[in-house]
Task: structure prediction
Amino acid sequence: MALTRVVNKFKKGAASMFSKFLNLDMEKQDRIINAAMKEFAQKGFDKASTNEIVKEAEISKGLLFHYFQNKKQLYLFLFDHCIDAITEEFYKKMDFVEKDFFERMRQAVIIKVELLHKYPDIFKFVQEAYLENSPEIKAELEKKIKEMSDINIGKVYEGIDISKFRGDMDLKKILKIITWIFEKIGEDEIQKAKLSPSHEFDYEKIQLIVEEYFEILTKAFYKEGGLSR
Result:
C-alpha cells in the first residue's frame, strides 16, 4: 500500500514547507515517495542517487528539486512522513481503555509487529534510518528519534493504573528502570542489525525477548495479586 494512502494529516510546519509537493495528485506523490524510500533503504543516504529516484519516479531531476531543495531535505521529509504514517495508525489501534501497564506495553509490541507486516517497505526505510551513519544527517536524525521516543513513551504511559505497582518503591524510578531496560533492548537489536549483512530486525524474536522481560518486571514491581496475566 502506498504511503500517501496511509497519511491523513501531516505536521503543519512541514505541510507549509513542502506545500508544492503535498499539493500534487496522490498518484504522483506515491511515485516519488516510493522511489525515494526504495533508493534510500537499499543504499543508505550517502550512496543513494537522486538520478535513480527520478528515473524510478518518472519525473525530471529539476522537478524533484523544485519540491525539495536537496537530497538531505528529501530524506528528512521522508523520515518524518513515514514516522507520522506509522504513528498515526499505531495510535488508532491502541486500546487506551486498557489501564494495566504491562498489558498496554504488550499491546504496543503486538501492534508494531502487525504494522511491520502490513507496511514492510515503510519499516525497511525507517529501520535503515535508525542505522544511518552519514555525518550529513546523523545528528538531525538522532534528535528526531529522541524527540519521537520521548513523546511516544509519554503517550503509552498516560493513564495507566498505578495502584498495581508496589507502594514501597518510587513509581517514577520504577518507570525509568523499565524504560531504560527496553531502550537497552532496542539498542542491542539495532547493533545486531548493523552487524547483519541484511540489516534486518527479527521482530518476532524481539517480541519473545520483550515477553520474557515483562514476566520478570511484573513480578518485581507489581504488588502480590496484581500480576498482569
Q: What stands out?
A: The chain has twelve helices and no strands. Residues 32 and 59 are 8 Å apart (CA to CA). The chain has one domain: 3-221.
